[in-house]
Design brief:
alpha+beta; 4 strands; about 20% strand; four-stranded mixed sheet
């Protein structure tokens, strides 16, 4: 299910090639994407209490691969059925431990 959603998002926004930059995809999907300083113990997260919603990754993260993984993981929280609603019901912020 999530693989099909990912393929759909990539093709809908004409993103081809690997590895690409998932920050671009997230921005095309109406998310702000920012590095977050001082996020020790957290690889990234998603915030639904702002408009637009924000995906963040740990500032100083080692390389594009880590950032892409983190942004892709957080996009999964946004697009898997029921995930974003559950996060919003629990305060609107989710952080993924590193």
């Amino acid at each position: 299910m999530i693989e099909a959603k990912a393929i759909d998002l990539l093709s809908r926004h004409n993103i081809v090639g690997f590895p690409g930059d998932l920050r671009v995809l997230a921005r095309l999907c109406a998310f702000d994407v920012i590095p977050k300083p001082g996020a020790e113990g957290v690889s990234g997260g998603i915030v639904f209490i702002t408009q637009p919603p924000v995906i963040f990754y740990r500032e100083g993260a080692a390389g594009t691969g880590f950032i892409n993984f983190t942004v892709g993981h957080e996009l999964g929280h946004a697009y898997l059925p029921g995930h974003s609603e559950e996060i919003q019901a629990e305060g609107g912020v989710h952080q993924s431990p590193s």
